[in-house]
Amino acid sequence: MLYLIGLGLGDESDITLRGLNAIKSCSRIYLESYTSILGIPASRLEELYGKEVIVADREMVEQGAEEILRGAEREDVAFLVVGDVFG
Question: What angle, 0 to 180 degrees and rounded to 10, lies between the N-to-C axes of helices 17-24 and 42-49?
């Protein structure tokens, strides 16, 4: 399953509980990093989640989407977006 999760606009504590629970089930976590800038270092997200966060730059999102989607039919993968994922 691919989860699209909005992080809110402030810091790591703005995520919803549902989003945080989904992240905890994921084997890979990507942070979209080119359409909006996270106001904190990604390492603070890693501390909260207890997992590595892979920073997905423009090239990865536009040219390497297959890497993000790889295995999502068998495992949980999170794609994190600053703010609202549909905004």
Answer: 80
Phi, psi of 76 (to 5 degrees): -85, 135
CA angle, residues 11, 4, 44, in degrees to nearest 5:
25
Interacting residues of 83 by C-beta distance below 8 A, sequence separation 6+: 6, 7, 8, 9, 36
Q: What is the pTM of this model?
A: 0.93
Q: What is the DSSP string of the chain?
A: -EEEEE-BSSSGGGS-HHHHHHHHT-SEEEEE-SSS--SS-HHHHHHHHTS--EEE-HHHHHH-HHHHHTTTTTS-EEEEESB-TT-
12-48 residue pLDDT tens? 999 999 999 999 999 999 999 988 888 999 999 999 9
